[in-house]
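Hi Y.,

Following your request, here is the sequence exactly as I used it, all 208 residues.
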Amino acid sequence: MKPSSSHRSVVGKPRSRLVRLVRFCLRLGSLSFLVLALVFGWFVYDALKPARTVPHTDGIVVLTGGQGRIDTSLRLLKQDQADKLLISGVDPQAGRNDLLPPMPAALKNRITLGYQARSTIENAAETAAWVADNRIHTLTVVTAGYHMRRAMLELGRTLPGVTLYSYPVIPPALEQPFKSNTLHLLLTEYIKWLGALAGFVHNPSRTS
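Below is the corresponding structure, written out as tokens. Let me know if you'd prefer a different format.
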């Protein structure tokens, strides 16, 4: 016996609903992928922007973990762009003479080495303690361009009353941004930044 037309219509309704649901999920997935890709493009563009001139600030914090960061922060301090400098995330085995080049004692006395941080979140906590001890109200942040967004986010959370100025460093790795290793680095940092936006806590890492 052939199924009646009413039976076929009853069976067809769940199928049509399933098809519509699958199509909706595919469209939503495609739209989400497009949005994430566009935001990633903006993230890469932002990571490659050179530093702009910043005003004189009460302090500078440099987050260790990449080439050129400490040298840049020392140059800013020597140019009297700030009163004090915190080098956050220093290797416990590194002393002042190992890390700092020869300089006048008066300049060296304006530098604090922070040994407590092993991740960006810990950099923010270490910086917050230093800011409180030194009554810092304006702060220049020095780190790699690809790391700057996440650093500013975490520092902003721990220092709501402090005005932050970004001073990104463009490391050699970003001189050829379309190489596979560089794209992998940028994508990794992009995912970490999205995780920080969502409030995820990452395990401490030396690769900030």
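Confidence is low (pLDDT under 50) at residues 202-207.

Thanks again,
Q.
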